[in-house]
């Protein structure tokens, strides 16, 4: 059964036919009204402090959800269309192990990536990154960023 998560409010749901009602439209969030849900291979339970970022098939930001501004200081209009790695200054990995590129290229989840995020104010924060490739024809990526205690 297809599992979905709202990139905005993190509400999880299931939908058998992957359509909104009787129309051929993307499934939308019935909790917050966000325009589309992200399909996951397995159900995922993000932490309350996790921020979700939706990217296209090139790793460019399409939307950010609640929690991203609180974590990074960046608003959606600041980062829309930017490369997710560059926009949030994500670091802590070797170039050949870039989790965005690996997830998009191979269509695999990358979970529990220990990363560093650069906030709008220039502060470096340790985060855990979870990367989920899109399962639909549009492609893309869901990035979950969770601050760590340190």
Protein described:
This protein has 150 residues and is an alpha+beta fold. It has a domain at 46-147: Beta-Lactamase (2-Layer Sandwich). The model has no long low-confidence stretch (mean pLDDT 90). The longest helix is centred in the last third of the chain and has 8 residues, at 99-106. The chain has helices spanning 68-72, 76-79, 84-87, 99-106; strands at residues 3-5, 12-14, 38-40, 51-55, 61-64, 110-118, 124-133, 141-147. The strands form two sheets. It has a five-stranded antiparallel sheet with strand order 5-4-8-7-6. The protein contains four helices and eight strands.
Backbone structural class: alpha+beta
Q: What's the CATH superfamily of the domain at 46-147, by name? A: PAS domain
Helical element count? 4
Strand order of the largest sheet: 5-4-8-7-6
Q: Report the count of strand segments.
A: 8
Binned strand content: 25-35%
Query: Order of helices and strands, N to C?
Result: EEEEEHHHHEEE
CATH topology of the domain at 46-147: Beta-Lactamase
Sheet having the most strands: 5 strands, antiparallel
What is the CATH architecture descriptor of the domain at 46-147? Answer: 2-Layer Sandwich
CA-to-CA gap between the ends? 38 Å
Q: Any idea what the radius of gyration is?
A: 15 Å
Q: Give the low-confidence spans.
A: none
Helix content: 10-25%
Assembly context of the chains = single chain
Question: What would CATH call the class of the domain at 46-147?
Answer: Alpha Beta
Mean pLDDT: 90
Instruction: Tell the overall outline.
Output: globular
Topology overview:
Elements: E1 3-5, E2 12-14, E3 38-40, E4 51-55, E5 61-64, H1 68-72, H2 76-79, H3 84-87, H4 99-106, E6 110-118, E7 124-133, E8 141-147
Antiparallel strand pairs: 1-2, 1-3, 4-5, 4-8, 6-7, 7-8
